[in-house]
Amino acid sequence: MANIDIDEIKKTAEQIRKDCIWMSTRADFGHLAPALSIADILATLYKKIMVYDPKNPHWPLRDRFILSKGHGCLALYSILSQVGYFDRNLLRDFANKYDTMLPGHPEIKLPGIEANTGSLGHGIPLAIGMALAAKIDNKNYRVFVITGDGELEEGTNWEAAIIAAKHRVDNLIVIVDRNKLQLGDLTENISQLEPLEEKWKAFGWATKVINGHDINDLISSLSATPYEDGKPTVIIANTIKGKGLPVAENKIEWHHKVLTKEEYNALKDDLGLEELSNG
After folding, report:
1. For residue 4, what pLDDT band results from cuts at 50, 70 and 90?
2. Would you call 166 exposed, middle or buried from its count of C-beta atoms within 10 A (0-12, 13-18, 19+)?
3. 239 in Cβ contact with 179 (< 8 Å)
4. 3-class SS letters over 167-216
5. What is the rounded CA–CA span in Å between residue 118 and residue 104?
6. What is the mean pLDDT of the chain?
């Protein structure tokens, strides 16, 4: 992974966004904007930071990744297909039948998925168990989690934050998708999160605030973890909800909205959108 350059990561993130837009339009379903905001983070994790083997998804020494904001799974499905966990043609099956391998929230039946998520507030608690298991078994894998900022209103996250600090799981890295929007309104109009970094520090975590769309910032920040021995790490990644789709950027109504086929076709050339070829 170390030889991957910035341009390749940017290209991967761009493909994630194209896949998200195409899949959601095809299915007429999905949380598109929440997926677009995490494309750069996922591209950096899977192309540069994490250690894993897509041909051996249960390799004991792999780094683990949990998408706690499971509704953003369009982006996760795309990156898993790009790095070889499954054939990219499977993306055609997103939310298209009852027993699809790619439902509206990720499930462990799909290679590369570590935990069923979507009921918000559970990703960090699950990750703590995985991180503690690594410590107990003397294994050096890390556990990465992406959580939504609106999701932080769930009290289970803060209970978990206390436990993680107590047990000194410095192999746990939480990335907050800080796009400042959630279903229905701005996060600060629903439940005040700021000062968010200070709150995590008060719970005993090492912290950093970054630009979640700057690949250099992502690489340097993720590569430097843990920031303090014996402390779990939280990275607050400032992002734009709907990033890459101008009509959706920073728009509250796009939390669970997708392009119509007519809108897709109208934007296709301008955004360089593409569909999977038959095969």
Report:
1. confident
2. exposed
3. yes
4. CCCCCEEEEEEECCEECCEEHHHHCCCCCHHHHHHHCCCEEEEEECCCHH
5. 9
6. 96
Tell me the per-residue pLDDT of 190-235, one tens digit each, with 9 for 90 and over. 999 999 999 999 999 999 999 999 999 999 999 999 999 999 999 9
- What is the Cα–Cα distance from 186 to 278, expressed in whole angstroms? 41
Q: Quick check: 20 and 29 in contact, CB under 8 A? A: no
- Nearest of 218, 226, 150 to residue 184 by alpha carbon: 150
Q: Is the pLDDT of residue 2 over 80?
A: no
pLDDT in tens, 113-140: 999 998 999 999 999 999 999 999 999 9
Q: Taking the CA of residue 112 as centre, how many other CA atoms within 13 Å lie in the half-sphere pointing to its CB?
A: 24
Q: Which pLDDT tens digit goes with each residue over 35-65?
A: 999 999 999 999 999 999 999 999 999 999 9
Domains along the chain with CATH numbers: 6-271 (3.40.50.970)
